[in-house]
């Protein structure tokens, strides 16, 4: 198995997967359940994949307590594909939609949606992400087809501390690519949830869509078939070849989450892990600083600057270099934001975060 001391992976996505899951995949890779074939080589309509497809849907339903009047779909095109798919499937009712832009991904989603209809920003886009205006100040359009927000801005480290609501009964749509399965959520508050798997629940290649049934059936005429929620739902996510291997690994990750205490355990653990980091920042006299308002700091992606609130790029480069010596990888902040970012997805353990914090203390002692 190569080096036994594996890397500490704080990457933002694709991201760390549970070792147990990868080891299981390894044992099955050449011969899936004594078939003499790899799952990768099997038909998406065969009995093996059909079971995986159904088991994965069932696990998502159980973990998230998905009500009966919602469908669970597996699609391709990533989170970015979903930006278009949401508009193409849901904007047809009125041709307009409300967007809460709180960072990089919701900004891209709003831009994509504007290709297909009228986008109304419910508050002005900030120059620098870092806060979420109070809901009472949002200008919601009663005619909007939906209200869109990104639950956790992966690049910027801004996480919604609440689920937006619409006084007009407009469906709420959320991009949960980086926060799905890290906390309990009430699915009944949503019209639609989209999530690329490669942050918390699997490898790249599959996008999970959870959608209320009454929102199906009204795609735009120009909606590509592979992005058509109604078609994908009617065909149980095998209208065309899905990312079978990605769904297979995702199914194992979902079972791993169940075995490890489900979403309550994931939520407790993520609170705990992020607290370790934010506490070190607080104790650091601004040597480490997080630019995000305290009420919306992400539990999942923690960005910070080193050497003062504006960041000292030399020190940050040194920080990354020293971290890599300790096998702590993928800590570089997003190229648009700079600085450092630690991503604490479900597979990242508390012990690993404690090691990172220990290193941060030592680095601070040496360089502050
Ligand atoms: C990663 C990410 C995306 C983009 O996903 P792709 O699969 O790269 O298209 C969109 N939204 C959020 C919140 C993400 O974290």
From TrEMBL:
Top enzyme category: transferase
Family according to the record: Belongs to the class-V pyridoxal-phosphate-dependent aminotransferase family. SerC subfamily.
Reactions performed catalytically: 4-(phosphooxy)-L-threonine + 2-oxoglutarate = (R)-3-hydroxy-2-oxo-4-phosphooxybutanoate + L-glutamate; O-phospho-L-serine + 2-oxoglutarate = 3-phosphooxypyruvate + L-glutamate
EC number(s) recorded for this UniProt protein: 2.6.1.52
GO biological process, one term: L-serine biosynthetic process
Pathway assigned to this chain's UniProt record: Amino-acid biosynthesis; L-serine biosynthesis; L-serine from 3-phospho-D-glycerate: step 2/3
GO molecular function, one term: O-phospho-L-serine:2-oxoglutarate aminotransferase activity
One Pfam family in the UniProt entry: Aminotran_5
Annotated keywords: Amino-acid biosynthesis, Aminotransferase, Pyridoxal phosphate, Serine biosynthesis, Transferase
Top-level taxon in the UniProt lineage: Eukaryota
Domain spans labelled Aminotransferase class V: 9-356
Gene3D superfamilies named in the record: Aspartate Aminotransferase, domain 1, Type I PLP-dependent aspartate aminotransferase-like (Major domain)
Required cofactor(s): pyridoxal 5'-phosphate
Gene behind this protein: AUGUSTUS-3.0.2_00542
Presence of the UniProt keyword Transferase in the record: yes
Protein name, entry field: Phosphoserine aminotransferase
Species this chain originates from: Tribolium castaneum (Red flour beetle)
HAMAP family: SerC_aminotrans_5
């Amino acid at each position: 198995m190569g080096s036994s001391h594996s890397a500490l992976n704080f990457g933002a996505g694709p991201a760390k997967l549970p070792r147990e899951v990868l080891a299981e995949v390894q044992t099955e890779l050449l011969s899936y359940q004594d078939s003499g074939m790899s799952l990768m080589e099997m038909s998406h309509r065969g009995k093996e994949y059909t079971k995986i497809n159904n088991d994965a849907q069932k696990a998502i339903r159980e973990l998230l307590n998905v009500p009966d009047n919602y469908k669970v779909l597996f699609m391709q095109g990533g989170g970015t594909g979903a930006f278009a798919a949401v508009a193409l499937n849901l904007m047809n009712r009125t041709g307009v939609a409300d967007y809460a832009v709180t960072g990089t991904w919701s900004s891209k989603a709003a831009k994509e949606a504007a290709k297909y209809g009228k986008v109304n920003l419910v508050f002005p886009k900030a120059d620098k992400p870092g806060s979420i205006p109070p809901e009472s100040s949002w200008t919601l359009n009663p005619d909007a087809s939906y209200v869109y927000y990104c639950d956790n801005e992966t690049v910027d480290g801004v996480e919604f501390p609440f689920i937006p609501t619409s006084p007009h009964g407009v469906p709420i749509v959320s991009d949960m690519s980086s926060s799905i399965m890290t906390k309990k959520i009430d699915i009944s508050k949503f019209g639609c949830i989209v999530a690329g798997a490669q942050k918390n629940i699997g490898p790249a290649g599959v996008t999970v869509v959870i959608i209320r049934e009454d929102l199906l059936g009204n795609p735009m005429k120009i909606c590509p078939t592979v992005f058509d929620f109604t078609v994908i739902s009617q065909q149980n996510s095998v209208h065309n070849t899905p990312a079978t291997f990605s769904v297979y690994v995702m199914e194992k990750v979902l079972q791993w989450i169940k075995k490890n205490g489900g979403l309550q355990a994931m939520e407790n653990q993520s609170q705990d892990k992020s607290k370790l980091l934010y506490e070190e920042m607080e104790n650091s006299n601004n040597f480490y600083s997080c630019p995000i308002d305290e009420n919306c700091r992400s539990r999942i992606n923690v960005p910070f600057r080193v050497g003062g609130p504006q960041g000292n790029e030399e020190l940050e480069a040194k920080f990354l270099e020293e971290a890599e010596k300790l096998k702590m990888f993928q800590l570089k902040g997003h190229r648009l934001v700079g600085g450092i970012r630690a991503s604490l997805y479900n597979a990242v353990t508390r012990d690993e975060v404690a090691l990172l914090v220990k290193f941060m203390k030592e680095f601070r002692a040496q360089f502050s």
